[in-house]
């Protein structure tokens, strides 16, 4: 019988890295559809504070979430590098605002360390672990846990025609 551990090994392969403030995060590239420049958004009435609104992406409304706010990192200043990473999660298209996209890197499962104890469990259950890009630590995040299916559905399902 195979032994299981709490060490995250689910995230290996190509990872998109991006910055939120001074921290670097990584997500599986398989969920990423494209990266677009920050653009005007139409606010959604009664939306949670982390939902910035919707954008028109080639004739489709895509809900956009401020990832800093969603992860409890507070608001940040927008710069020329601020952009929207368009994801496909739970069969739905969703955009997340990040401070800057950095790189695509290869992650080997054996180089992934568990998240620090202060981040384990609770609201940080979306953390898969930590790795490095050179000397820089990279926090590996499972976007399907950041945005559970019911929350994505509550955003209107996204990807609905204009």
In short:
It contains three helices and eleven strands, in the order βββββαβββββααβ. With 162 residues, it is mostly beta strands. A hairpin with a 2-residue loop joins β6 (83-89) and β7 (92-98).
Secondary-structure blueprint:
Elements: E1 13-20, E2 23-28, E3 32-37, E4 51-57, E5 60-66, H1 67-70, E6 83-89, E7 92-98, E8 100-107, E9 127-133, E10 136-141, H2 143-146, H3 149-154, E11 160-161
Parallel strand pairs: 2-10, 5-7
Antiparallel strand pairs: 1-2, 1-8, 3-6, 4-5, 5-11, 6-7, 9-10
What does this protein structure show overall?
The chain is mainly beta. It has a single domain (13-161), classed as CheA-289, Domain 4 (OB fold (Dihydrolipoamide Acetyltransferase, E2P)). It is built from three helices and eleven strands; from the N terminus they run E-E-E-E-E-H-E-E-E-E-E-H-H-E. The strands form two sheets. Strands 3, 4, 5, 6, 7 and 11 form a six-stranded mixed beta sheet that branches. A five-stranded mixed beta sheet has the order 8-1-2-10-9. A hairpin with a 2-residue loop joins strand 1 (13-20) and strand 2 (23-28). The longest helix has 6 residues, at 149-154. Residues 1-9 and 158-162 have low confidence and may be disordered.
């Amino acid at each position: 019988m195979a032994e299981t551990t709490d060490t995250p090994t689910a995230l290996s392969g190509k990872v998109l890295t991006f910055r939120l403030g001074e921290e670097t995060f990584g997500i599986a590239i398989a969920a990423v559809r494209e990266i677009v420049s920050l653009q005007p958004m139409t606010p959604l009435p009664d939306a949670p504070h982390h939902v910035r609104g919707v954008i028109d992406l080639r004739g489709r409304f895509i809900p956009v979430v401020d990832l800093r706010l969603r992860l409890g990192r507070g608001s940040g200043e927008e710069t020329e590098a601020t952009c929207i990473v368009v994801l496909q999660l739970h069969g739905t298209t969703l955009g997340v605002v990040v401070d800057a996209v950095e790189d695509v890197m290869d992650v080997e499962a054996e180089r992934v360390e568990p998240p620090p104890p202060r981040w384990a469990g609770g609201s940080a259950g979306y953390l898969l672990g930590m790795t490095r890009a050179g000397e820089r630590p990279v926090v590996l995040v499972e976007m399907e846990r950041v945005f559970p299916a019911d929350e994505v559905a509550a955003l209107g399902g996204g990807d609905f025609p204009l």
